[in-house]
Each structure stands twice: as structure tokens, then as C-alpha cells.
Specification:
By secondary structure, this protein is an alpha+beta fold. The chain is built from 3 helices and 3 strands.
């Protein structure tokens, strides 16, 4: 099983080649459980209002590249606030 750090590095290298379940693992680790999971979207609460938002959805088992990029920006912002 890949670590969260391994998945984040893979996200940076190729945002198009990320499995949705791996992106969800990263989001769960960084932002906690999603406040919405029952629909096609997983919506995560962030400690700031507005962008970058963390709202992901599966595209035939893969993460959408633009959402991977949004998650990377959110992780950067989260680390900057710590």
C-alpha cells in the first residue's frame, strides 16, 4: 500500500494518472472525513472560506485532473497556515 506522501508525489508528477480512491485517501488524511459522501461528490471542509475548495468526484475510477490540482493547492495552503 502506498503512503500518503507517495500519492502526493505522484499527484504532482502526473495529475491525470491518479485513482479516485487514492485522492480520497489523501483528502481524508489532510482534511478529515468529508462532510458529504453519499452522492457522486466528496466534499471536504477546509479551515478557510472560498478557493481552493476540496470537492472531488470519480470519473470511472480515476480522479479528475483539475480536482487533483485543486487538492494540491489546498494542501499547500493548509501547510502554509500551520
Amino acid at each position: 500500500m502506498r503512503t500518503i506522501a507517495d500519492i502526493v508525489e505522484a499527484m504532482k508528477a502526473n495529475p491525470r494518472g491518479i485513482k479516485f480512491k487514492d485522492l480520497a485517501r489523501v483528502c481524508d488524511a489532510c482534511f478529515g472525513e468529508p462532510r458529504q459522501r453519499g452522492t457522486s461528490h466528496h466534499v471536504y471542509k477546509t479551515p478557510w472560506a472560498g478557493d481552493p475548495r476540496v470537492n472531488i468526484q470519480s470519473d470511472k475510477g480515476m480522479a479528475k485532473a483539475y480536482q487533483v490540482k485543486q487538492v494540491l493547492k489546498a494542501i499547500e495552503k493548509l501547510e502554509a497556515t500551520r
